[in-house]
What does this fold into?
Amino acid sequence: MSRRIVRGYDNEVYRIGLSGGHVVYVRIRRQGEGSFDQEAWAMSLAREAGVPVPEVLAVDTVSDAEGRHPAMVVADATGHQLEASMGTLSDPQRRRVLVDLGTVLARLHSIAVLGVWRPDESGRWPDPDELRRGFIAERKTERGLLLAAGLSGPEVDRVIDLLDYSPDTPPRSNFVLCHGDISPEHVFVCDDLQVSGLID
It folds into this structure.
């Protein structure tokens, strides 16, 4: 039995129920570039460091009428999504979860890597300055989206102008693995509120 999970930006995600009650997730990249090799590599490093991430079962491609698309199959995360229970937790319970999450993230963020962002297919890491220029250029192309969201032209132009002067520059050394999208839907906890999985 399969069920498409609608949420996702670059990836289309399916929950697949297998015989014996097992569940896997199939992620298919419909937009963007690159395979899932780098993500599988990062997840492997995280597991080796004791970070609870799902096991990667396969990295391959799938085909449809639009062509070939990178795909990855991962095992189900243990426990349940923190998002499902966050509203029912007492303040001490929330504190317990967040302290444990901080411990898990500190472990993840202590894993040394060789560069910023992620390596390309040949293993080359991007130049930090080039990466920043590309990020700014991409944000500038989104001016129309910001206008459509209700911001005024002067507001959008001011924000875009500030991008060039932002002090938020990539680091030059001591690179570490980082989870860039921590939210209650990406954190799994077990019944005793210990973090049992990080996804995405």
